[in-house]
Amino acid sequence: MSEKNWEKRIAYLGPEASFTYLATKGLFPHDWHIPYKSIPECIEAVSEGKVELAVVPVENALEGSVPLTIDYLYHESELFVTAEVMSKIQQHLLVNKKFAENKEAIEEIYSHPHALAQCHKYLYYNHGGVRQTSYSSTAAAAELVSQTEDRCIAAVANFSAAEKYNLHILEHNIHDFHFNHTRFFVLSKQNIKHGLVPLQAQTKTTFMLTLPTDVSGALHQVLSVFAWRKLNLSKIESRPLKTGLGNYFFITDILADEEEPMLKGAVEELIALGCKVKSLGTYYTYVTPE
Amino acid sequence: MSEKNWEKRIAYLGPEASFTYLATKGLFPHDWHIPYKSIPECIEAVSEGKVELAVVPVENALEGSVPLTIDYLYHESELFVTAEVMSKIQQHLLVNKKFAENKEAIEEIYSHPHALAQCHKYLYYNHGGVRQTSYSSTAAAAELVSQTEDRCIAAVANFSAAEKYNLHILEHNIHDFHFNHTRFFVLSKQNIKHGLVPLQAQTKTTFMLTLPTDVSGALHQVLSVFAWRKLNLSKIESRPLKTGLGNYFFITDILADEEEPMLKGAVEELIALGCKVKSLGTYYTYVTPE
């Protein structure tokens, strides 16, 4: 029953010091972390067997689902979720140490669009006239700031990026909403649960459901299937099917194991109703320490 | 019964040659179009009385809802929808005319993140190694390309941007999915329908619903209220409430007028069930010509 004595290869949405890196290191401290440039490349790395697992962001408490993750898992991959990780998101305003003193002189602010959106009010009221530029990640924005000495630009990024790129934290915790977590999926080719069972373990199962006909009546039927069984949905969200405005599939998280008889019965009925059911499997939730 | 003889001031998500500009010009050819830098600024311009109307994107057939529009309308404004406009989205790969011949040499590709996502497969298979940089809009990316002569960069943008910035279209229609429309809201302080009644007019009403307790049971109840009345929902989508992962509000589009007795009765029952109902009003749908 001993663990295999080799490191797992784990793809994550890079670069180093990204929020995804922090989540990956939290759950897999002793494995081999390999940064990839994009979410599709992380997913393809698992599909093609280059790595055993991939960690990608799937939902943020403020911004909602990460469309690229949801859509790629639905349309382009046959992977399963083996675990989910929740991480608290704290954003800071970082500048090159050379400009640690002159707060007024910020010429441009770089970050991932989600991070800029999460700090929208702070930036609007404190740096309203300053141009905001979208960047591929918060960590890449921090790296750019570390490399730019001829003008004072700032990045919105996490503490780990400030450390890694040796930046000055001009303002701590500039995110508008106090409560902000991001949820990450750990993806695998195998439909298994990640090994360690967390405290107060509650299993969760994610289905992607495509309804047979019109949205309103069919969604009502689908929810009836869950409701009379008292199966608790912790999430239901629609995503466009890419076949036209008004055509959706639904991502549902159910607080139950797909091997439980009640959930098995629900799936059988959903299929009988004409739904397409794509299961991403059953998994546990892990929380990274602050 | 004559129209007032002055131009309406209409804010739109700029810059000129953006997809929002095309939608705005399509519905209001003879009015005063004023570009704003961001969606919140467009909405605030109406709230503060600087303009009569604002046109902002609300949903794309591929990318889904525009979170900033939905969230700002829910959390920060008391505006109504007076019309919606549907526009077909066609993306092209544009380069400076100076580089019209050397296809291999593209060093970097700029565009709005949604446009890059819409052309993800084309870019992955044809320009896989080329860095993609998010930009504030497709038109701003086109402008950047027009101003950059020392290296060959490209923009993903529409035909109008190619014309305005005098760029070479290296490749037409590079979007991955053939069917791609964007839906725009025309916002006003007044809860009225835009004047001209379109052909085959079908009224639509948008509600933002906050459920009283747990998602699964409450959503089932809400849908029951619409289902037995045969009120047709053309859309239901969840957005995070920003109070924690798992707390959502729902945007619903109902194909009915909120003055109809059936819809009035539904709203009364929703309130009795403990739902918070925020109406964005009833409006008609317009389609811009291709």
Describe, in plain words, how this protein is organized in 3D.
- Chains A, B: Pfam families: PDT (PF00800).
- Chains A, B: It catalyses: prephenate + H(+) = 3-phenylpyruvate + CO2 + H2O.
- Chain A has helices at residues 19-27, 39-47, 67-75, 113-118, 120-126, 138-147, 159-164, 215-227, 261-272, and strands at residues 9-13, 32-36, 53-60, 64-65, 80-88, 92-96, 108-111, 131-134, 153-157, 167-171, 181-188, 204-210, 233-240, 248-254, 276-287.
- With 290 residues, the first copy, chain A, is α/β, with parallel strands linked by helices.
- The first copy, chain A, has 2 domains: 9-88 and 181-287, Periplasmic binding protein-like II (D-Maltodextrin-Binding Protein, domain 2, 3-Layer(aba) Sandwich), CATH 3.40.190.10; 92-171, D-Maltodextrin-Binding Protein, domain 2 (3-Layer(aba) Sandwich), CATH 3.40.190.10.
- In chain A, strands 1, 2, 3, 4, 5, 11, 12, 13, 14 and 15 form a 10-stranded mixed sheet that branches. A 5-stranded mixed sheet of chain A has the order 8-7-9-6-10.
- In chain A, β3 and β4 (64-65) form a beta hairpin.
- The first copy, chain A, is globular and about 65 Å long.
- At the A-B interface, β8, α8 and β13 of A face β8, α8 and β13 of B.
